[in-house]
Amino acid sequence: MNPDVRRELMPRDEVLRLIGVLDGMKAKLLDAAEQWQLLDDTGRVPGTPAYADLIQHAAGAHTLAHGVVELAADFARSPHSTTRVGRAVLAHLATAATLSSNAPPRFAETAETALSLAGNPITNRYQANSMVLDHATARAYLRRTSESLGAAATELNNHLGLHRFFPAPSRRQSPPSPPPGPGTRQR
Fold first, then answer.
1. DSSP conformation letters of 10-65
2. Rounded to two decimals, what is the model's pTM?
3. How far apart are the two ends of the chain, measured CA to CA in Å?
């Protein structure tokens, strides 16, 4: 076996652990993007959007983004980040870190706009539209972050497939003694 190829392999247990982490984060991001709704059941902005609910979206997005950034930083510090598959995974994690970091400010802007909805109906309509766009953009950042995490997991799943071509080395056993034959001396 080519020693360079062996060096490129990430340990199977580490790959499986990382895939599990990525899948878990991906599910949390998709769940948040689905649950954090601004519009009511009719597709309209509620008359008085609740600031507390909207700022909680920002806080939740911040927590999710922090987790994604920490995962990217941890992986970047690992020795696996310098391998071919590690660089590809790190590129997806870097994209995910950037995307996830853009969601909290958009949610915060949504909450801030909700506080200012009062007074002039013309500016209210403009502000409400702006609020809807900010909220939808923030949710899109969460969805796109989950897609980047999914792409990183796919890279790792593909890498996991290489392990079957390079089985883990078994423990060395002493070779069996040769059977007695014409060339062996017996006492």
1. PPHHHHHHHHHHHHHHHHHHHHHHHH---S-TTSS--SS--HHHHHHHHHHHHHHH
2. 0.81
3. 41
